[in-house]
Amino acid sequence: MFSITRKGVPEDALLKTYRGGTHPERWGTYGDCFAVTVDRVVSLADFVFAFYTTPVFRVERLILGGLLGLPSSDSAARALADGSAASFAVWYVGERTATQLLMCDRYERTRSWFRVVPLNDNRTLLQFGSAVAAAADRQTGALALGSGFPLLLRFHVLYSRMLLHAATVRVRRRARPREVR
To answer: pLDDT per position in the chain (181 positions), as tens?
Structure first.
């Protein structure tokens, strides 16, 4: 079995270092990182594709397609994962390296981050994180997260763990030889 841990966002994570988009000063108030180690070599493309095609995330894709008119497909997820697409549903690629992918939502309110870290013995550390932009107070101009954020945070943490768990199950299954029927 595998264990998902919550850690601080690494200093070299695109989730911390990327300053593109509008209002870069609004980032840095909230960020998280969830991590799990799998006993196989996993590429960034495999991790991203597995994540966006899990049954858990497909529900989110359906909601985004219905509410915002931004449908997505497994083939669109494959194109994003392989680096031949620069957007997926409501997100666009903020930055990509060989081991990291930062996705920014079109409204500049959230970011999602993926990273693979090769380890010894053909194992891989999978990391997934999110960041939420602070909003400027209309009266003072001070940057802060909304008053409802603490309530949503519990759901967000649970949902992030569920997403990473589902992606981990998917990448682990892909490592097993398929049975011949």
So the answer is: 469 999 999 999 999 999 888 778 878 888 999 999 999 999 999 999 999 999 999 988 888 887 777 778 999 999 999 999 999 998 999 999 999 999 999 988 889 999 999 999 999 999 999 998 877 777 777 777 777 787 888 899 999 999 999 999 999 987 544 444 3
Q: How far apart are CA 76 and CA 38, in angstroms?
A: 25
Q: Is the pTM of this model over 0.85?
A: yes
Q: Is residue 94 part of a domain?
A: yes
Rounded to an integer, what distance in angstroms lies between the CA atom of residue 111 and that of residue 4? Answer: 20
Domain residue limits at 132: 5-174
Q: How far is Cα 36 from Cα 34, in angstroms, rounded to an integer?
A: 7
Q: Is residue 17 part of a domain?
A: yes
Q: Is 95 helix (H, G, I), strand (E, B) or coil?
A: strand
**Total tally of structural domains belonging to the chain:** 1
CB 74 within 8 A of CB 170: no
Structure tokens that stand for 61 in this block: 């894709």
